[in-house]
Amino acid sequence: MTEQALGKDKRQEKQDMPLALYIHWPFCLAKCPYCDFNSHVRPDIDAALWQDALLSDMAHEAALTQGRRLSSIFFGGGTPSLMSPETVAALIDAATRYWQPTSDIEITLEANPSSVEADRFQSLALAGVNRLSLGIQALDDTSLHFLGRIHNVQEALSALDIAQKNFSRVSFDLIYGRPNQSLKDWEEELKQALAFGSDHLSLYQLTIEEGTRFHSLVRQGQFTPMDGDKAADLFDLTRDMTKAAGIPAYEISNHARKNSESRHNLTYWRYGDYIGIGAGAHGRRLNNVTIRHKKPENWLSAVQKQQQGIQEETPLSPKDQAIEAVLMGLRLTEGIHPENIQKRTGLDISEFLDIAAIQYYSDQGLLTFNNGLLRITEQGVLLTDALIREISL
User: Fold this and answer.
1) pLDDT means over runs of 10, the chain (393 residues)
2) Of 236, 315, 296, which is closest to residue 54 (Cα–Cα)?
3) H or E segment at 388?
4) Cis peptide leading into 78, omega within 30 of 0?
5) Distance between CA atoms of 135 and 111, rounded to whole angstroms?
6) Inter-residue contact 193 to 221 (CB < 8 Å)
7) 98 with 58: CB under 8 angstroms?
């Protein structure tokens, strides 16, 4: 087969894979002190203007990916549950007209558990959302206050109950590793969380991100983050308890019952194509990375001028693709097959992976590389980022 024909086959294979669509709503009622996402507080939002702009941004991407199937839609933020159900419905309708939805398309919307947003859950379900991701974050009011959340535990549990009555699939987030949180405290909180019966949990250790209010408070000595050894103990406890409850980790911070993994996020981690629209959204399609204007006003202005909000569009070299596929895929418990990356990029495995380093860390019990499957072991999972740096070329 000629090099030209091989390249054509790779492009065709990529086009045959279903797409994921990410829609970013950048607005929140308040900015949480730990959050480094692209979220903004604005007193007034012209909902109709924003709906039209998102539809225009989507139409631009659809024109470039005609004929592709669509396996998932994810409304993220910000706080997308602040969107009107009518806007959500219009975006879902447009997406499923532009692309061919798979029979089991997953449509997720992130929500906060305030009573105002919970009142919309039934309408959001009727709009087409079939999976809700609820930002509970903690199950005691003192911690919620520390995390800058505007809901309390009673509201969170009420919202979870309403969500479970309206959506076939419900996930919720918790943040642990908070200052002064004991192993026993987290054990009791996680035990309570597991008792709610959700099929998916996102359990994140508190990290202090640069540019956040928490980062400033730590620099000022207002509080001290949890030390690494104690955080590792909480991480190990989390893995043990979720596994025992039948909801094991399938990614570093994400846990699910069998067949209840987030299909949208699996597209990212398995290095599939995804469209990202809205302020600050990133996308990867046909071996190009797209980055939208981050500031809401700048994105809106760009869409009004050019019918789309792209600030940067950059082609990915085969080496970039290979390294990104390793970086994303090794976050998953299932691991990666380097030969599949080789077939996709045309690179020899030795051009993107250090085989000697893989052997060394396998001997240390941190990796396994058997029958073509490369995985990070339970012993190595806390070192995932460092291991990926060590074995990538």
Assistant:
1) 46 72 94 88 90 98 95 95 95 98 97 86 96 97 95 95 95 96 97 96 95 93 93 96 97 97 96 97 95 97 97 96 96 96 94 96 96 95 95 94
2) 296
3) helix 384-391
4) yes
5) 6
6) no
7) yes
